[in-house]
Hints:
Layout: E1 6-10, E2 16-20, E3 23-27, H1 37-43, E4 57-61, E5 64-69, E6 75-80, H2 82-94, E7 105-107, H3 115-143, H4 151-159, E8 174-175, E9 182-183, H5 199-204
Antiparallel strand pairs: 1-4, 1-7, 2-3, 5-6, 8-9
Helix pairs in contact: 1-3, 3-4
Bound molecules: zinc ion.
Zinc ion is lined by residues 176, 178-179, 181, 190, 192-193, 195.
Amino acid sequence: MSEETAVIANLTAQSWSLHRNYGAFFIRAADLAGAHPAAQAAGEGSGGAMSSAPLPSLTRVTPRKAVIDMGDKRSIDINISARDIAADLCREINGDAGEDSFLGAFVCAGDEPTAEEITDARRRLEAFYRRKVAEADREWARSHSYLFLDDVQRRGAHELGLEREWNYQLHETSECPGCGERVKPHVAVCKSCGAILDREKAKALGLWSEPVDATSAPSAAATSPAAPSAAAAPAATPRNVPAAAPGQNRGAQTNQPRRGEPA
Ligand SMILES: [Zn+2]
């Protein structure tokens, strides 16, 4: 008797470990190295946001026998087809994330997914991710709290290549010394308070220019204490060109320990 098998394709980098009373099943994560012709055909020319998504992994499922204990020393064997098992596993995987949930697992009609099946599943996954990102956008606008966001929303933003303020991990951001807001790495100017965070970059972008006249009062934004280039070009920074107080002998300041001066 030849066993009829079913094949589960998984589009995401998530793997799944699922348990039934007739067996345990491990659904492999999609792997960039797992190229096969249908997946390549689906990737070509689709041009969608997820056209660079990993190629699906394939997991083959075989039929199982479930034993039902009748309770009177009799038991009944029930044959479960590979296709039923595969459909059941996909239902669990895809149903994990709320309304219209689709997490990228499907049962192939044949032994391998066709290009159409892959394209169709990618579209569904993309649509689902877009809904999750929109959901997170609304939540973020309302609460501005990372606590109410979930992994699927973050993954969605990542997979779709969408930049989101809520998708920056805390370790990727730093605190603006001007206002305390979280700022993305490598930004030139804080968008909340206008502090110049990277003077060289701000200068290159035309967002800041060095004051020509040392006696003109520099704007508060130009004297951000966090400006890393302040140390690189100390002579040019306004803070290092102090206007001498009236009557003060500037020469006396050089190399003279201040504590030795009379009060
Ligand atoms: Zn700021």
